[in-house]
Specification:
- There is one protein chain.
- The chain is of the alpha/beta class.
- It has one domain: SPOUT methyltransferase, trefoil knot domain (Alpha/beta knot, 3-Layer(aba) Sandwich).
- About 35% of the residues lie in helices and about 20% in strands.
- The chain has a seven-stranded parallel beta sheet, sandwiched between helices.
- α2 (about 25-40) links the parallel β1 (about 15-20) and β2.
- α2 (about 25-40) packs parallel to α3.
- The protein is globular and about 40 Å long.
Length: about 170
Amino acid sequence: MNRLTVEEFHHSEKLPLTVVLDNVRSLNNIGSVFRTSDAFRVEHIALCGITATPPHREIHKTALGAEESVEWSYHEETAVCVKELKKMGYRVYAVELAHESLKLDKDTVATDRPIALVLGNEIEGVQEEVMSLCDGFLEIPQYGTKHSLNVSCAAAIVIWEISKQFRL
């Protein structure tokens, strides 16, 4: 199956992408984001605010060990984390419905520098203060009666799309 060991993963080339979880409550969602991030070799996950951190049995249940392969850090305040990422040269996008958001089915994101994706709380979304710090917004087109997705599903879709655009 050509799977990497955790050690090989640590030394492999990563997608220049950091996923920022802004006050995500569900341990299963956190674990799922770790697992998706492992699948696409995301370089880092920033866990912010009330977002739980490994080691945790419930995170491990969905991460299936990806919390050991994907680098992560904890930040008390998402806004401080985003400011740090911007200073490091990241282009920061919130995954939110917003005016002038880029539509993932029609628009492309600039891949000339690393990207940070901010995904918000399951009820409140990304904090307004954090939204004001972002360089742009990414929207997943939806055609049904609902206008939101589970945060881990949204993360998977956007990480997949960003990975394709970096590889073009």
